[in-house]
Design a protein that fits this description.
The protein is an alpha+beta fold and 678 residues long. The chain has 17 helices and 25 strands. Helix content is 23%, strand content 17%. α4 packs across α10 and α4 packs across α11.
Length: 678
C-alpha cells in the first residue's frame, strides 16, 4: 500500500539510501494525503449542468479489497509512581514549517495511559515494519501526515529501555528526562510541517531490545487560522465576499462558505437571507439573515456523505465487496420483476435480456453510474410517460409508487425500482442517475441494519462532533428558521408542474428533491442531507488522510480506489466527480489540480477537495429560492442561476489565484475585481 501522494512521489531526486527508507515506509500502516493511482486522460466532450429536467442533477453528464490488517498494539504499562513532567527540547528552534509562525519547543508530559481509538501510525521500534533482514537503514524511520501548528504523538517506552535517540523532522530531542515504562504525550507544533512529517528512533540501548519504543500518531484535525497562515492572500477571500455581497444586493438569495487549507479553517462566512422572496416573486425584506449555522439543502452532495462514506468505511472494514451483485441484497426480484417495455431513447432488447442485464449489476456499476438506469423515472409522479421519460398528464406512469413519504411508499418505491427496465447494457454507458444512489442507500441499510441517517450519525457525525448536519432537520431539533429555504412554490415550478400531493408552499426545512421527499420519506442515498458549510468541510477533510483525531474511517487504499479516474470516463471516480483535464472546471475552476474531486448539488451546493493544494472548499447557496426565469420556456431555470454567485466554480478559481504566491498576486486579484465587479 503506497502512502505517498503523487506530489511527493514525483520528487525523484532521491539518493539510494533514501530510496530504501521510502520503500520501508510504503509498508507502514496508516495513511497520508491521497491522490489517485491511475493515469488521467481527457474526457470526450464537455460536462455541463442541465437544468432542463424536473429533478435534481438530471443530465449533468454528457452520455457519459481486502480488509486492511489492524496494526499490532504492543502496549507497555505506565508506572504511576513517576509523575514528574518532562520537557524535551530541540537543539535550535525553528519557525513553523517556514511559514512565519512562532515556534514552540518540543514538549512532553507523562500520561497515565494510551488513549483509546485508532491511529494514523502505530509503530514499534526498532524495526517497525519487519524489515531488519533487508537493511538496518529501514528499521529506524517512519512518516505521517501532519500540519503546522498541531503536531502531537504518543511515546510508550519499554520498562527495559535504557536510552534512545528521537528525531522529529530532523530535529533531535533531548530524551534524557523520559523514564522507562512510561507513556508520554509529545507536542511539536513548532517543528511540524504541512504534509509529510518524519520520525526517527535510533540508538536504542540495550541493543536488540524489541518493542523498545512505541509511537502512536493521531490523524490531523482542523484548527482555526487565518488565510495568511495557510498561504492564501486574504484579498482572495475578500474578493469572493464582495462578489457575493454585490449579488445579494441585486437579488441573489444567500450563501455560505468554509475554506480549509493545510489543516486550518481560514474562512467561515455567510451572506444574504434564509428566505429571500415571497411566493409571488417579490423580495422578502423581513426574512432573517443567514448565519454560519444556517443549514442548506445539499441536494446531490448527499450522495458522497450518505453513500460513499458508508461504502468506503464498509469496504475498509471488509464488510462489503464492490463487485457483489445487487441481487445479493435486494433479492432475485430485482431482475425477475422487470417490466417488459423499452425506452424511446434506449436499447431495444427483450425481457429475458433485460433481466439478465439487471442480474449482472454490481455495486461498482452503481457507483460509476454505469448500471444502465435512466436518470430518474419519477416514481412519485403519476403523470409520466415511462417510455419517453417526459411529463405527460394524459399518461399513467407505469412506475408510479406513491408520494406520501411513508414507509409503505418507500417499500413500494423499492418494488418500483425492481420493475424498472434498463436504458443501456450495464458497463457500456455513463448515465448520471439518482436511481443508482437510491439503490446504494437501500443496500447500505440492508447490510448494516440501520437507516442511512442513523448510520451516518453513529459512524461519522457524532464521533467528529458535527452537530449541524442531518437528514430531516425539522425532526431533529432544528426550526425552519435554522434552514435556508428553496423553491418558492413547492415543487410546482411556479405552477407549471402539478399532480395530487405535490407541495405548493415554499419548501423550507424539508428536502427539495421530489424523489427523496415523496418516495423515500426524506432520507435517501441520492438526496436529503442538510448541513452548514463548516461541518461539511470538516467531514470532507477526512478524505485527505482517512481519519480524524483518534478515529480511523477509511484506509488509504480505499480512498485511492474511490477517487481514481474511471477507465471509461475519467471525469468520474467511484461516485466522486474528478477534475481530470478540466472536465469539472465549471465547478472546481480552471486552476484546480487534475486530481481534485468533489460533487455539486442542484440547489446550488458544492464541496471539493484538491489534495495537491491541501485545499477543502464547501460553498453552499440556495439559488433556487428565487422565481423561475421563464416558466413556459424552461420551468427548471431559476433567476438565481444567472448570478456569478451561482456559478460555484468562481470560488475555488479565486482561491487558487490567491494561493499562487506570486509577487503580483494582489495586483492580479485587483484586476479580477475590476472585471467581475464592473
Amino acid at each position: 500500500m503506497s502512502l505517498l501522494p503523487k506530489k511527493w512521489n514525483k520528487k525523484k531526486a532521491l539518493a539510494a539510501a533514501l530510496i530504501l527508507i521510502c520503500a520501508a515506509a510504503l509498508a507502514m500502516p496508516g495513511c497520508a494525503k491521497r491522490t489517485s493511482k491511475k493515469k488521467d486522460s481527457r474526457t470526450n466532450g464537455k460536462t455541463e449542468t442541465d437544468e432542463k429536467s424536473g429533478r435534481e442533477d438530471v443530465g449533468e453528464e454528457k452520455d457519459t479489497p481486502e480488509k486492511e490488517e489492524e496494526p499490532q498494539k504492543q502496549g507497555m504499562p505506565a508506572d504511576p509512581s513517576r509523575d514528574e513532567p518532562v520537557v524535551v527540547t530541540v537543539s535550535e528552534p525553528q519557525t513553523a514549517g517556514g511559514e512565519g509562525l512562532s515556534a514552540d519547543l518540543i514538549s512532553a508530559e507523562r500520561v497515565d495511559g494510551m488513549p483509546g481509538g485508532d491511529w494514523q501510525m502505530d509503530a514499534s521500534f526498532p524495526d517497525p515494519f519487519g524489515l531488519a533482514g533487508s537493511s538496518r537503514a529501514m528499521t529506524q524511520d517512519a512518516y505521517f501526515l501532519g500540519y503546522v501548528g498541531q503536531g502531537q504523538l504518543y511515546v510508550n517506552l519499554s520498562p527495559s529501555i535504557a536510552s534512545f535517540d528521537f528525531y522529529i523532522n530532523g530535529k533531535k530531542a533531548d530524551t534524557s528526562g523520559m523514564q522507562p515504562g512510561n507513556i508520554y504525550r509529545v507536542s511539536f507544533p513548532g517543528v511540524a510541517r504541512n504534509g509529510k512529517n518524519t520520525v526517527q528512533v535510533s540508538g536504542i540501548e540495550p541493543a536488540g531490545l524489541s518493542g523498545a519504543v512505541r509511537l502512536c500518531v493521531p490523524y490531523p484535525q482542523v484548527i482555526d487560522g487565518k488565510p495568511e497562515d495557510a498561504g492564501i492572500d486574504s484579498d482572495a477571500i475578500d474578493l469572493i465576499s464582495d462578489i457575493i455581497e454585490a449579488d445579494v444586493k441585486n437579488g441573489f438569495p444567500g450563501a455560505q462558505l468554509c475554506v480549509i487549507r493545510n489543516g486550518r479553517l481560514v474562512c467561515s462566512r455567510s451572506w444574504g437571507r434564509i428566505n429571500a422572496y415571497h411566493p409571488d416573486g417579490t423580495l422578502n425584506k423581513e426574512s432573517p439573515e443567514a448565519t454560519t449555522d444556517t443549514l442548506y439543502d445539499l441536494a446531490s452532495v448527499t450522495k458522497m456523505f450518505a453513500v460513499n462514506y458508508a461504502m468506503q468505511k464498509l469496504l475498509t472494514e471488509g464488510q462489503i465487496d464492490l463487485d457483489s451483485k445487487v441481487t445479493d441484497y435486494l433479492g432475485s426480484g430485482f431482475c425477475d420483476e422487470t417490466l417488459d417495455f423499452h425506452y424511446a431513447k434506449g436499447a431495444d432488447v427483450g425481457i429475458d435480456m433485460q433481466r439478465a442485464w439487471k442480474a449482472s449489476i454490481t455495486i461498482r456499476d452503481l457507483l460509476r453510474h454505469r448500471a444502465g438506469f435512466p436518470a430518474s423515472p419519477r416514481y412519485c409522479n403519476p403523470y409520466v410517460d415511462a417510455v419517453t421519460q417526459e411529463l405527460d398528464v394524459y399518461t399513467e406512469n407505469l412506475l408510479f409508487a406513491g408520494n406520501d413519504g411513508t414507509e409503505e411508499t418507500k417499500r413500494a418505491t423499492e418494488e418500483a425500482i425492481c420493475r424498472t427496465p434498463l436504458m443501456y447494457e450495464p458497463g457500456t454507458h455513463t448515465e448520471y442517475s439518482d436511481v443508482d444512489y437510491m439503490i446504494l442507500g437501500l443496500i447500505i441499510e440492508k447490510k448494516t441494519g440501520k437507516s442511512l441517517d442513523a448510520y451516518l450519525k453513529e459512524n461519522f457525525l457524532t464521533p467528529m462532533g458535527l452537530s449541524h448536519m442531518t437528514f430531516r432537520p425539522l425532526d431533529h431539533g432544528f426550526r425552519r428558521e435554522d434552514c435556508a429555504a428553496t423553491e418558492l412554490n413547492g415543487n410546482t415550478r411556479d405552477g407549471v408542474v402539478d399532480y395530487p400531493g405535490i407541495r405548493r408552499d415554499t419548501i423550507w426545512g424539508e428536502v427539495h428533491d421530489e424523489s427523496a421527499y415523496y418516495s423515500m420519506g426524506g432520507v435517501s442515498g441520492h438526496a436529503g442531507l442538510f448541513s452548514n458549510a463548516s461541518d461539511l468541510a470538516r467531514l470532507m477533510f477526512v478524505m485527505l488522510s482517512g481519519g480524524y483525531g483518534n478515529r480511523r474511517f477509511f484506509s488509504g487504499d480505499v480512498i485511492d480506489e474511490f477517487i481514481s479516474p474511471g477507465q471509461e470516463d475519467p471525469a468520474f471516480g467511484l461516485g466522486w466527480w474528478r477534475q481530470g483535464n478540466g472536465a469539472r472546471s465549471r465547478y472546481f475552476g480552471t486552476l484546480a489540480s487534475p486530481d481534485a474531486f468533489g460533487h455539486q448539488g442542484w440547489t446550488g451546493t458544492l464541496v471539493m477537495c484538491d489534495p495537491e493544494k491541501d485545499l477543502v472548499v464547501a460553498y453552499l447557496t440556495n439559488k433556487i429560492n428565487t422565481p423561475v426565469a421563464d416558466k413556459y420556456a424552461d420551468p427548471n431555470k431559476f433567476k438565481g442561476s444567472s448570478y456569478t454567485s451561482a456559478s460555484l466554480g468562481f470560488v475555488p478559481q479565486i482561491l487558487c489565484v490567491g494561493m499562487s504566491g506570486g509577487e503580483d498576486v494582489k495586483q492580479q486579484l485587483q484586476s479580477l475585481r475590476d472585471d467581475l465587479l464592473k
